[in-house]
Amino acid sequence: MDESELAGRIVRMPESGIREVFDEAATYDDVADLSIGEPDFTTPEPIVDRVDDRVRSGATHYTPTQGRPDLREALSAKLERENGISADPETEVIVTPGAMGALFEAIHSLVDSGDEVVIPEPYWPNYDGHVASAGGTVVPVETDPEDGFVPSPEDVADAITPETKLLVLNTPSNPTGAVIPPATLEEIAAVVDRAGVWCLVDETYESLVYDDAEHHSIASDPETFDRTLTVHSFSKAYAMTGWRVGYVSGPSHVIDSIRVLQEHTVSCVAEPAQEAALAALSEPELLDDVREIFDRRRSLLLEELEAVPGLSPVEPAGAFYVFAEITGTDRDSRSVVMQLLEDEQVAVVPGGVFGDSADSYVRLSYATDEETIREAVDRMRRVFESFSS
């Protein structure tokens, strides 16, 4: 097909480098997969049971575009209780088709052609597509592995220009697992406030923090809330990736803009998915169980990686990924990843898809069972040993 026939906003959207690995891995047998960012277990039974009951009782209809009122009330209470964010359920909370939909709609509600969007790097590559389709330009800010990939407020400030419209933060981070400390977030909030820039915070992995790390929501400060959109999701911690339900909180005029955009695209989130979200909110103890599982797998993966020469992991404070530097060869991350797949049928994600500064890294997901983690790392060891032989 001649691309000139397609809308420029679509042509500008890059394809996912993560999906490329996923699709390539599907052509092999017996793959030890550490590439996918999805829990290996299914949605917990209490959630499924409630949805089954409610669907049989008629929860199969359109809902308000902004989400069912009872769900928005529950989300508002959760935001106040767990995040310190005061958001009016009537005007400052909207239910979205996953965090993906939330981020796309939020960026398209704020970013115009010619606007710059500052994002600490490494970052989840889908941000690129969202910004590009809105006509904006991403301005990456490199982070230091010695600081756990936590962005520096000074570097963020240096990246802001008169064309900057938005700062995107992701804490805990995909791909690095970095958790931005409260004090650092406060400094970044001051930078954003002085510059008159909007802030979009992706808190998809908020419940998955380990050791002494503390998740903090920048919008818990009422003054910061007025120029901040905060995105949350049920996908990762509740193993609800297929339900496609997330939510955004923020100032009412932007939430209303997101509502209008959603009205013209998906109408509303499916009512059974909203029932699942309500059920999840009533089962907070599930979060502790999931966090414990992932923390155990995190420790296992870090321990196993000690036996892999030429691969240096940065210990993550959150999420369910390890970002590891390739030190045993000067090859780019994609070629290393393809060799891992071809020689040993092990799938990981090349760091280069998360930004140019990350091309000497690979991302490994520990959202899988312990046997797969052990087998994958053992296969990786053989490939990395071959680099030095």
UniProtKB/TrEMBL annotation:
Lineage top rank: taxon: Archaea
EC number: 2.6.1.-
Gene Ontology BP annotations: amino acid metabolic process
Ranges for domain Aminotransferase class I/classII large: 30-379
Single Gene Ontology MF annotation: pyridoxal phosphate binding
Record has Transferase as a keyword: yes
InterPro entries found in the cross-reference section: Aminotransferase_I/II_large, AspAT/PAT-like, NHTrfase_class1_PyrdxlP-BS, PyrdxlP-dep_Trfase, PyrdxlP-dep_Trfase_major, PyrdxlP-dep_Trfase_small
Known cofactor(s): pyridoxal 5'-phosphate
Pfam families, per the entry: Aminotran_1_2
Keywords attached to this entry: Aminotransferase, Pyridoxal phosphate, Transferase
Subunit structure: Homodimer.
PANTHER family the UniProt entry points to: AMINOTRANSFERASE (PTHR46383:SF2), ASPARTATE AMINOTRANSFERASE (PTHR46383)
Family (UniProt): Belongs to the class-I pyridoxal-phosphate-dependent aminotransferase family.
Protein name as it appears in the record: Aminotransferase
Species annotation: Natrarchaeobius chitinivorans
